[in-house]
């Protein structure tokens, strides 16, 4: 077992967190992750109504007697969700840990203030992709920051900085604990993140490809058969970059963006309307059920896909990660011993 601040704070066996992936982080996966000894986050806005979200909260509680968290991701949209309502539903269900993403200026204080109406013991993990945003989240009261490297699925930001650099930079400037995210899929990566100063890792793509993940087996097979080179970066021309699986649809999006970018004046953003039918969230959600991973929709996938070769249960995955972590630590200890012997002979 790898014990530290994160495992003690969240009462988990291994410092691993399952991110609140849209349309994926549902009760069966969250409960399985939590029961396996890691920490799972339920996706709030996967549910279009407070009533359906409340049902999912109760379903999760029926599948595990351990604490779990809720992801609240607030991104620009035409229809603004009832953020306060989802937070209250979570608090009423006993949730005290929140994974947040988006603008933290309103979100973090809102959760903190609402938490005071209950027992006040709230832990906020804020996700971001730059050191600048991590510092802002820290200043606004985040208890822990999850920093997304360029390798991550979904939104890696616009700076294109890898997890290796981001974690080292966070260690230099942040006072709050940090989770590594982007490019992590096994126990060896966990040890690497810990060595860079992180208190654990936040995994998405790896948990996407587990037995309890509520998506079609065809999608899981695509991940197993894929490599680190089988992702695309889309929506770069809109300054809203997203890393997704390299399927026929995402290739088409990149093609359209390339053509439009050449035609537009420098600094002018292209018309999203030309891409909307291809990248629609509803289409991606339907794809998870149909299994048409090539034409069904755009779906987020990180470069960690290259490290994934099977579809284990969450319990099998966590047990394996613990073994891998100990193997890496033993190898480091052996290497350190050899170095010490060499130095003593100098």
From TrEMBL:
Transmembrane segments: none annotated. It comes from Nadsonia fulvescens var. elongata DSM 6958. Keywords: Flavoprotein, FMN, Oxidoreductase. This is Inosine monophosphate dehydrogenase. One of its GO terms (molecular function) is nitronate monooxygenase activity. SUPFAM superfamilies: Inosine monophosphate dehydrogenase (IMPDH).
């Amino acid at each position: 077992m790898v014990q530290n601040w994160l495992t003690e704070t969240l009462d988990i066996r291994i410092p691993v967190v399952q991110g609140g992936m849209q349309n994926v982080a549902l009760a069966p996966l969250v409960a399985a992750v939590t029961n396996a000894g890691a920490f799972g986050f339920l996706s709030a806005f996967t549910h279009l109504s407070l009533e359906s979200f409340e049902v999912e909260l109760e379903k999760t509680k029926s599948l595990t007697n351990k604490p779990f968290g809720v992801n609240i991701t607030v991104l620009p949209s035409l229809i603004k969700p009832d953020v306060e309502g989802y937070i209250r539903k979570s608090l009423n269900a006993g949730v005290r840990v929140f994974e947040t993403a988006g603008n933290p200026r309103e979100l973090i204080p809102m959760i903190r203030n609402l938490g005071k109406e209950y027992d006040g013991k709230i832990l906020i993990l804020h996700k971001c992709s730059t050191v600048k945003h991590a510092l802002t989240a820290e200043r606004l009261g985040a208890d822990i920051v999850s920093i997304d490297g360029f390798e991550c699925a979904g939104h890696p930001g616009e700076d294109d900085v890898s997890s290796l650099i981001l974690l080292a930079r966070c260690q230099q400037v942040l006072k709050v604990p940090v989770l590594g995210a982007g490019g992590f899929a096994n126990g060896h990566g966990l040890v690497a993140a810990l060595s860079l100063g992180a208190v654990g890792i936040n995994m998405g793509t790896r948990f996407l490809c587990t037995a309890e993940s509520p998506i079609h087996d065809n999608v899981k097979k695509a991940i197993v058969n894929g490599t680190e080179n089988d992702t695309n970066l889309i929506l770069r021309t809109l300054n809203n970059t997203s890393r997704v699986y390299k399927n026929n649809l995402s290739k088409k999006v990149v093609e359209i963006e390339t053509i439009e970018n050449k035609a537009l004046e420098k600094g002018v953003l292209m018309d999203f309307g030309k891409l909307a039918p291809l990248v629609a969230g509803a289409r991606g959600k339907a794809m998870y059920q149909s299994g048409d991973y090539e034409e069904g929709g755009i779906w987020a996938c990180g470069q960690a896909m290259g490290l994934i070769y099977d579809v284990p249960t969450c319990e099998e995955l966590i047990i394996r990660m613990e073994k891998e972590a100990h193997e890496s630590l033993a190898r480091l200890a052996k290497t350190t011993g050899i170095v010490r012997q060499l130095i003593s002979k100098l």
